[in-house]
Amino acid sequence: MRKILYILVLLLLCNPARAQKIAFPGGKTYLFRVQLRDKKGTKYSLKHPEKFLSERSLRRRERQGLKTDSTDLPLSQKYLDELNAAGFEVVGGSKWNNTALVKLTDSLNAGGLAAFPFVTGVRCVFHSPDSISRQRVFPLKSDTTEAIPGKPYGKATRQIEQLNGRKLHEAGFRGKGMLIGVIDGGYMNVDIIPAFKDVVIVSTHDFVYPYKSDIYHLLDHGTMVLSCMAVVDSFRYVGTAPEAHYMLLRSEYGPTESLSEEDSWAMAAEYADCEGVDVINSSLGYAQFDDKSTNFRYSELDGKSTLISRTASMLADKGMILVCSAGNSGDEPWKKITPPGDAENVLTVGAVNAKGVNTNFSSLGPSQDGRVKPDVMALGGTARVFNGRGVNSTANGTSFASPICCGMVACLWQALPGKTAREIIGLVGASGDRASIPDNVFGYGIPDFWKAYQMGK
Description:
12 helices; Rossmann fold
C-alpha cells in the first residue's frame, strides 16, 4: 500500500493537472428526494393533454392506442410553491414518480420537509464533496483513418453486419423520421468534430444540478455513444441510424456517484416523452455509490424496486422504446446487470466481440424475478467509435453495444411504423440467434434485424 501511495504522489507531482481540484459549484449542497402524496392543486387536466405534452408525443401515443394517465400530469404546483415559500428550493422532480428534488445547504434542515402534510417520504440522494476534479475538454486531433474501398461503412462495417442491419439500410430504412433521445453524461466537442457535421441535433438539455447550458464541454462518453448511431463518414465510418434526428440529454454526473442520478435520469426520460422521442439510448447503469449504505442489492433487480428501473419500466406504456446497456460488471464482484437494465419491456444489450463471443465484462442476468437478461447482444468488444478528440478509434463496453443496437431498432421501427413499442421489442428478441434457448449470458442472442423486419411485415 505504501509503495502504491508513493507512486501516486510521484504521478501527481509530475503532472499537476491530475491533482487540480476546484470547489463544488455552488458550495455545500444536499439534494433530497421528496415523495409527494398526490397531485391535488395541479392546474392541468387529462382532458387537455396538449397542455403538457407535445403534439409529436400525443401522435406517438395515438398510433399505439395509448392514453394519458395520472402519472403524465405535472407535479402539483401548489405543493412546490409551498416548499419554496418555506425556504426549500425545488430544483427538479419526476412527475411519473410524483417526487420533488429539493436542494438544501444544511442537512439539519431536512426534518422540516417531512412536516408538510402532502409529503409522505424524504430521502437524501446527494451530498456534495468539498472539491471535484476540473473537467478537461480535449483539443481536436486530425483523424487519419483511411477510407476502405468497397466498404461504405468503413471501420464500422462489422458492427452493422453482425446485426444484419445493412439490408435494412439498403431497403431505405436508415432512421429517417425517427427521433432518438440519448441520455448520457456529456457530449464533448460534438458541435465541432467534423464527423458529426451532418448529424441533426434537434435540442440539448441538462438534468444534472447545478444545470449547465453547454453539454459539449463535458464528458466524451456521450460523444462515443452518439457516434455509433449518427455519424456518416463514407468509406470510413457510418452509424446504424444515420438519418435519424437526435436529442442529447445529460443525466450523469462524472465526479460522483449518487442516487440523485436516478432522479436526473427520470427527468430526462420524462422530457424525452414530452418532446415526442421515439427511442431512447441509455448507456448508463447504477449499482454502487459513493455512499455505500445506498448501494443497490440483488433483491432489487426486479424492474420495480429502484426509481430508475421503475421509471424505465414505464417507457413502453408511454409508447417509447428504451435500449440500454447491460453493464460492465461481468468480471467484477457485482457481475449482474445494472439498473435500469433490469427494467421490464426494454431492450437490455450485452456485449460480444467481432466473432460473436461474449466479452468477459458483459454483465449477466437474470433479473431477480426470473426474466431473461440481457435481452440481446451487439458488438461491444473493440467497437468503433469517434472519441472526444474527433478520432475514429476503438472502445470496449456494453455502452457501445447499446447504441449500435439502438440505431437499428429505430430503423426497424421506421420500416414497421404500425407496430407498438412492445411489438418492436418482441420482434428484436425473436430474431435473436438464441431465441429458442435464451440464457443469462446472451439473452436471446444477437438479433437479425432483416429477419425481424420480415417477421413483422
